[in-house]
């Protein structure tokens, strides 16, 4: 008897969604968006209103519309385009070099325990030495030009990706490797078909850390010794008391970071679809 | 002579096999002077208490471990490492999480150099054999324990081995799935006509599947014993002779 009632109620719910259901879905969507971005929106509204009404010092925190206007003139007017390009070039070059060296080296080091053990202490030592502390050394070696800036960013960016790759390779399930070996797979095949795909999620963790580091070091390097670039513009605007312009450069740097992260997340989703099927 | 030669495939001979492990500086003999002949197409179960060396024996047969003394011959040739005439089914399915069911089943053939198209055609056949045709494009994360183990079995069968080595393949499954899978294994063994060597701690499973049961004792003083299982197939667990056989095997371990 109870089964009967369950059956009929199930049959009833297979109707097309009614207007009320659609409305409910819309309300649910709004609620999710509110829960996720509500606090951020509130913060921005407080900034705008607080600055306009003088609750907070508008010379230090200009209203948001002024910052957005400064960003717009900077980008569309072309004043900041040159800086964006040079910043992208510096961080892009350094990031590409770090990835190009870090992933292959990490894959190699993770496979051969003796190499990993011999290199690990020196890696840990270099990693703990702040790249910015070494910047003067790089300037001495490579001069004040582009090379030293790119190198300091490369240096700091290399370690997260290298260590994450080594970790990924070393944590590959031995049982899967043994399984492949029982089917007669060669070392090279095991590397290509088991070790490499198993390390991809961990490599992506490294890539995202490295991308964040690249932007961090970019800003620092440009603030210390550059006359172009977004990091330089932040400092320069502050010296000249052009506070909206300063925030415009900060905003662009934040946008750069968000974009880089979003790109990597999209790529990771595509490559590691198998890993997050349950979400 | 030539007739004898051609009918010999999937035959396993173990001669004077000894293997010991070193644990905390102490030598621990696991297998001592073991002799064993497995006929082509036979189903042999290896049972014994934990630590008796049953998994070690299987790993030696698989070529994953080498013996300290003695040798293993397959069709008269000594075993050196893993070989293409043997396939192993482990207790865990050991599936590659980034490959679909089809990709996992075709994996064994692909790493041996078979083209992907051909490997997938043969994989599909065995996926159907284990009853997972609808789950071909599913990923391992989406499968239940029993289904994942079926994928492991299909992967081993796809390479068409002469000898199937099973290391407690149903040990991690729930009781009901286990019964179904035992029936499946019996059917697959009958259809594929492979030599099957199965390590298990489930005495009923041993009698249900095997032609002979090798009993490895815990104390190394007592020698291993072989028990013939002369029951008609398909077997019925509740039949008087089956029950009697189970009682006898349990008595070997002092169980009632």
Account of the protein in words:
- The complex is a heterodimer of chains A (279) and B (256).
- Chain A is mostly helical.
- Chain A folds into two domains: 17-58, no CATH class; 71-273, Orthogonal Bundle (MetI-like fold), CATH 1.10.3720.10.
- In chain A, 82% of the residues lie in helices and 0% in strands.
- Chain A has eleven helices and no strands.
- In chain A, helix 3 (64-76) crosses helix 11 and helix 4 packs parallel to helix 7.
- Chain B has 256 residues and is an alpha/beta fold.
- Helices cover 36% and strands 23% of the residues of chain B.
- Chain B is built from eight helices and ten strands.
- Chain B has helices spanning 2-7, 54-62, 101-110, 116-129, 145-158, 175-192, 203-209, 240-252, and strands at residues 12-23, 26-38, 43-47, 69-74, 77-78, 86-89, 163-167, 195-199, 212-215, 225-228.
- In chain B, strands 6-7-8-3-9-10 form a six-stranded mixed sheet, sandwiched between helices.
- In chain B, helix 3 crosses helix 4, helix 4 (116-129) packs across helix 5 and helix 7 crosses helix 8 (240-252).
- The longest helix of chain B is centred in the C-terminal third of the chain and has 18 residues, at 175-192.
- The radius of gyration of chain B is 19 Å and the shape is globular.
- The interface between A and B is medium-sized, with 22 and 25 residues.
Q: Provide the spatial order of strands within the biggest beta sheet of chain B.
A: 6-7-8-3-9-10
Rg of chain B is 19 Å
Oligomer: heterodimer
Shape of chain B: globular
Q: Could you give me the name of the CATH homologous superfamily of the largest domain in chain B?
A: P-loop containing nucleotide triphosphate hydrolases
The total of beta strands of chain A comes to 0
- Whole-number average pLDDT of chain A? 88
Task: Supply the CATH architecture of the largest domain in chain A.
Answer: Orthogonal Bundle
Largest sheet of chain A: none
The CATH superfamily of the largest domain in chain A is known as: MetI-like
Order of helices and strands of chain B: HEEEHEEEHHHEHEHEEH
Q: What can be said about the biggest beta sheet of chain B?
A: 6 strands, mixed
Low-confidence sequence ranges of chain A? 7-14
Cα radius of gyration of chain A in angstroms: 26 Å
Strand content range of chain A:
under 5%
**Tally the helices of chain B: what do you get?**
8
The tally of domains of chain A stands at 2
Structural domain tally of chain B: 2
CATH overall fold name of the largest domain in chain B: Rossmann fold
Morphology of chain A: flat
